């Protein structure tokens, strides 16, 4: 198994893309830390991981927009496992708003705190420990919105563009022992997509060269690549997993 003996921490790990990655990492032999705001969901998935894969799993409630909670998450992870080999900054948020002039300062801050500030803090804390130890891999989950911004998600697009920039800078900061890369996702049919209207789903599918939206498990190949030694000479990279969005 490609991640045998490794420890992976996934934020937003109890559902959607995060859940798919947690399950894939456990399948490949990793112990996992499942972090999200709702402890009950984390505990449910942790139980499943233990039962189905025989791996250790730590559920932890944390809002990554709060740096104190980020620090608590890191301390809990190292207390339980003594190491983190793979960090996936997956937690994100893209709220709807009626128009750009009605984006409040509080909403702007909330979007940036979750999508950019939290990943920076977690990557800085864990990356520093990785660099001083046995190394590791940090994977940021970005969005095609970073390069194809639209008015209906402009703050989110700006935050994800910032995450892309952080990826390259952190790759330099923690080299040569730590690799930092980004998966830049297109439209995935997670539980969040259940709120999309049929028109929105059709528009997103038509915007991709593959003419469809993705299933959550279609992020797994990229995640396993970056997490494993298969990507031993890849850092500072942004990999588009978007079906060829125009």
TrEMBL record:
Keywords of this entry: Oxidoreductase
Keyword hit for Oxidoreductase: yes
Entries under InterPro entries matching the protein: KR_dom, NAD(P)-bd_dom_sf, Sc_DH/Rdtase_CS, SDR_fam
One Pfam family from the record: adh_short
Domain of life: Bacteria
Domain Ketoreductase as annotated: residue spans: 6-192
SUPFAM superfamilies: NAD(P)-binding Rossmann-fold domains
NCBIfam families, sorted: PRK07231.1 (NF005559)
Family: Belongs to the short-chain dehydrogenases/reductases (SDR) family.
UniProt-recorded name of the protein: Glucose 1-dehydrogenase
Organism of origin: Streptomyces thinghirensis
């Amino acid at each position: 198994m490609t991640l045998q003996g490794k420890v992976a921490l996934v934020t937003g790990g109890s559902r959607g893309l995060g859940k798919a990655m947690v399950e894939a990492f456990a399948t490949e032999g990793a112990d996992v830390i499942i972090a999200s705001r709702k402890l009950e969901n984390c505990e449910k998935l942790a139980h499943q991981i233990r039962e189905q894969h025989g791996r250790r799993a730590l559920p932890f409630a944390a809002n990554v927009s709060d740096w104190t909670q980020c620090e608590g998450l890191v301390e809990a992870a190292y207390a339980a496992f003594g190491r983190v080999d793979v960090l996936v900054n997956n937690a994100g948020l893209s709220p709807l708003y009626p128009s750009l002039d009605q984006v409040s300062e509080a909403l702007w801050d909330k979007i940036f705190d979750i999508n950019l500030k939290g990943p920076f803090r977690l990557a800085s804390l864990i990356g520093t420990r990785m660099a001083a130890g046995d190394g590791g891999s940090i994977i940021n989950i970005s969005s095609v919105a970073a390069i194809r911004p639209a008015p209906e998600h402009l703050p989110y697009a700006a935050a994800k563009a910032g995450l892309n920039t952080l990826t390259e800078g952190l790759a330099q900061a923690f080299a040569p022992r730590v690799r930092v890369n980004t998966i830049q996702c297109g439209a995935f049919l997670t539980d969040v997509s259940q709120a999309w209207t049929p028109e929105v789903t059709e528009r997103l599918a038509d915007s991709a060269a593959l003419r469809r939206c993705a299933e959550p498990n279609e992020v797994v190949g990229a995640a396993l690549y970056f997490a494993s030694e298969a990507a031993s000479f890849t850092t500072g990279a942004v990999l588009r997993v978007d079906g060829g969005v125009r």
